Amino acid sequence: MAIKVLVGLGIAATLFTGMLAARMVWEETSLTWQQGPQMLGFSLAHGAGAVLFLAPILLSLWILVALIVLVVCLLRKRKIPGSYWLTLGGALAVIGILSIPPVFFQWSLIGSFAKSPHAGDLMVYDAREGDLRTVRGFLEHGVPLTATDYEGSTAVFAAAAGGSLPVIEMLAAKGADLNATNLYGDSPLEAASERGNASVVSFLKAHGTVQIHGTPEQRDAASELIVRRDIERQKLAH
Question: Can you give the residue ranges of every domain in the chain?
Answer without folding.
Answer: 2-100, 106-237
